[in-house]
UniProtKB/TrEMBL annotation:
The keyword Metal-binding does not apply. It holds the Pfam family Glyco_hydro_3_C. The keyword Iron does not apply. This is Glycoside hydrolase family 3 C-terminal domain-containing protein.
Length: 749
């Protein structure tokens, strides 16, 4: 395609049509110039292709496709390789279905556990979301299918999502909510970015020039196309001017006419329209669909869905090694809960998939070698207790050797499009868990849910297995973990607080219909709980294994560009397993509010019993940097840092201090420079001693140069003086001429 020639040949109405979207799933085709329509479909954890001729408006009516675990579970794998493979599988399926663009991954941060779309998002931490999201993007695109990374940006609540403004300071925006997108754009070159519905600090994201042009393109070097979320654009001319390339799904001829009018009246420069058209033509050219429909190996893809779920399921609690249950020795096992039969295995809304082969936990039980009887225990379609179901379950559980109860959020409480109102399980489920734990000492709770759950019953149960929304292989994967066929290695990519009221945004989340105030700033998720040393139910990064790992021999090699960290990881148990070493950094060098630790690197390592592996993690300058709003740039400060290697943010196994020297040119010394700054810096202190404090300067008006009875310079010990700028020292009678000499000498390099 000769894009510049096309651009010259396209008429204004054709250009306007191209940037307006044709309908829900296609861009406009320009037959005259052989420009094909480009097809896109949801979604992040499985194809939701609604065929052009099905004419359906039912969101759940799509072609059959593999339903992979929702992002909440796949992210718990902390496994870049598997996320890449997930992308490859999705790419193969999209290619077979002749789709050009896959609308995913969803990478916004899980700010409040009430966020309705948390199941579709990866993590509360931008590094985890960025690295895993980036691997997914690379996987999809390796199969010649483009992605739409969504939803750019700060789409952390669903209520009033079309109009609410996410209001926060620039540092919070840069370090948390934009950071994930920045990592993905720079490392994975996504074909497109989808803007979110919301505003940031009052400006609609799809019409936000700073976001779409200055940051995304100029700063990060994004070369793809920017499309809107469905119906997110309020004014399509403003959107084009701000840097949006494609309004989706477009408002038909109304959108087109508006653009034509704006160009004709001069409201919209045709050059601006051309830019958007150029971006789109590149996308159409680069991501042409396969010329004929294909197939893929459904059984193999289903097995991958199972493998990904196996790798992500998190063993949250395992008192007295309740799990795994060996089918040969388990004795009488009772399985309770309607969710075993009617599992919740995927999220609702635009990521809903029509599965190829759903295996329910109850059906998969038959193939697991475990013998168990099943009792529904509660009804999913109501939250009131059903006494007869409860009685039957309790009677069976009384003399059972092990009880496994399936519990979770029903579909109508958790979906795209609205936020949750509570973190409690339905009353009938919570109450049943409590009663079971009173009559049986071996209760395991298996959870199916999209985000964090409160567990008032936690002390009564022995084991908790978090399966989130595990995809169509939910049944097989659940028993893989419970029976020990697979050793669990999932770790939480979000904190489970004890109570909703413990979350930093509890009093304000969703309260104001027009604004969401990010008053907690940087202190979100573990950055908040850890800094405030609060008790949490399960910390960020937590996940148990059936084996044990030992961390030893931490070594650090640092220079002005960053640091290389190595340590030994030994499997000290008797089963093969995978550990998720996490490297946190505490910044003691910068004089701005800092969380007590921030995740800066992680990996996942398979280790055989008795084996030791050397793990290497790298930190670069950015890992020590913070966003300086005043200077509008990243800043890495020389000084002291602490490195912590852990199995979760609360289970730190190795720790060391480190002094970084970034060879920054120092801030100039002025009359506003504090004495404490001068005393802390060996070079400045030396110059100050020479120019101001030396004995030859100890004349009449220079009280600074006086010494105490031991002959030490009194000033250097005096906290009150140290907390004064030079200007104040002069104002209090200090030697102005000598201090100015010092300032001149200090700034000479
Ligand atoms: C969702 C997007 C989705 C689009 C198309 C929107 O409502 O926010 O994530 O890709 O619909 O289904």
């Amino acid at each position: 395609m000769d894009i510049e020639r096309m651009l010259a040949e396209l008429t204004l109405p054709e250009k306007a049509a191209l940037v307006s979207g044709k309908n829900s799933w296609y861009t406009a085709a320009i037959d005259r110039l052989d420009i094909p329509a480009l097809m896109m479909t949801d979604g992040p954890s499985g194809l939701r292709k609604q065929t052009a001729d099905s004419g359906t408006t039912n969101i759940n009516d799509s072609v059959q496709a593999i339903t992979y675990p929702a992002a909440a579970l796949s992210a718990s794998s902390w496994n870049r390789d598997l996320m890449h493979q997930l992308g490859e599988h999705l790419g193969d399926e999209a290619r077979a279905e002749q789709v050009s663009l896959l609308l995913g991954p969803g990478v916004n941060l899980k700010r409040s556990p009430l966020g309705g779309r948390n199941f579709e998002y990866l993590s509360e931490d931008p590094l985890v979301a960025g690295e895993l999201g980036g691997a997914y993007v690379q996987g999809v695109q390796s199969k010649h299918v483009g992605v739409a990374v969504k939803h750019f940006a700060a789409n952390n609540r669903e209520n009033q999502r079309f109009t609410a403004s996410s209001d926060m300071d620039q540092r919070t925006l840069r370090e948390l909510y934009l950071r994930t997108f920045e990592i993905i754009v720079k490392a994975a070159y996504p074909a497109t970015i989808m803007t979110s519905y919301n505003k940031i600090n009052g400006t609609l994201n799809s019409q936000n020039r700073r976001l779409l042009r200055s940051i995304l393109r100029d700063e990060w070097g994004f070369h793809g196309a920017v499309m809107s979320d469905w119906g997110a654009v309020a004014d399509n001319v403003q959107a084009l001017r701000a840097g949006l390339d494609l309004e989706m799904p477009g408002q038909g001829q109304a959108s087109v006419n508006n653009i034509i009018r704006a160009v004709e009246t001069g409201e919209l420069d045709e050059g601006t329209l051309n830019k958007a058209v150029r971006h789109l033509l590149h996308i159409i050219e680069n991501w042409l669909p396969a010329d004929h429909a294909g197939t893929y190996d459904h059984a193999a893809h289903h097995q991958f869905a199972r493998k990904l779920a196996d790798d992500g399921i998190v063993l949250l609690k395992n008192r007295h090694a309740e799990l795994p249950l060996d089918p040969k020795t388990a004795g009488k096992v009772v399985v309770i809960g309607e969710l075993a039969d009617q599992p919740r295995y995927q999220g609702s809304g635009s990521s809903h998939v029509n599965p190829t082969k759903l295996t329910t936990p109850l059906a998969a039980l038959q193939d697991s070698d475990l013998e168990a009887n099943y009792y529904p225990g509660y009804r999913l379609d109501q939250s009131e207790t059903d006494d007869s179901l409860v009685e039957a379950a309790l009677t069976a559980a009384k003399d059972a050797n092990h009880v496994i109860i399936f519990a979770g959020y029903p579909e109508n409480t958790e979906s795209e499009g609205f936020d949750k109102t509570s973190l409690m399980l339905p009353e009938n489920q919570g109450e049943l868990i409590g009663r079971l734990s009173k009559i049986n000492d071996h209760v395991t709770v298996v959870l199916q849910n999209g985000s964090a759950v409160e567990m008032p019953w936690i002390h009564g149960v022995d084991a908790v297995v978090e399966t989130y929304l595990a995809g169509e292989a939910v049944g097989e994967a659940t028993w893989d973990i419970i029976t020990g066929a697979v050793n669990p290695s999932g770790h939480l990519a979000e904190t489970f607080p004890q109570r909703l009221t413990d979350t930093p945004m509890a009093p304000t989340f969703g309260q104001d219909p027009h604004h969401e105030y990010y008053t907690e700033g940087m202190f979100m998720g573990y950055r908040y709980y850890d800094t405030h040393e609060m008790h949490v139910l399960f910390p960020f990064g937590h996940g148990l294994s059936y084996t044990t790992f030992e961390y030893t021999n931490l070594a650090v090699d640092e220079n002005e560009h960053g640091a290389i960290i190595t340590f030994d990881l030994t499997n000290t148990g008797d089963r093969a397993g995978q550990a998720v070493p996490q490297l946190y950094v505490a910044n003691h060098a910068s004089h701005v509010p800092m969380p007590t630790k921030e995740l800066r690197a992680f990996t996942k390592v398979a280790v055989a019993p008795g084996e030791t592996k050397v793990v290497t993690l790298k930190l670069n300058r950015r890992d020590f940097s913070w966003w300086c709003e005043g200077k509008s740039r990243w800043q890495a400060d020389s000084g002291d840092y602490e490195l912590m290697v852990g199995d979760s943010s609360r289970d730190i196994r190795l720790q060391t201090k480190l002094t970084m020297d970034f060879k920054n040119s120092p801030a100039p010394v002025t009359a506003e420079t504090y004495l404490s700054t001068i005393v802390r810096d060996p070079r400045l202190q030396q110059i100050f001693k020479e120019t101001v404090l030396a004995p030859e300067h100890a004349n009449g008006n220079n009280f600074l140069a006086t010494t105490d009875e031991h002959g030490n310079l009194a000033l250097l010990q005096d906290q009150m003086f140290l907390n004064m700028p030079l200007r104040a020292v002069i104002a209090l009678g200090g030697p102005a001429d000598l201090i100015h000499d010092f300032i001149n000498a200090a700034n000479k390099r």
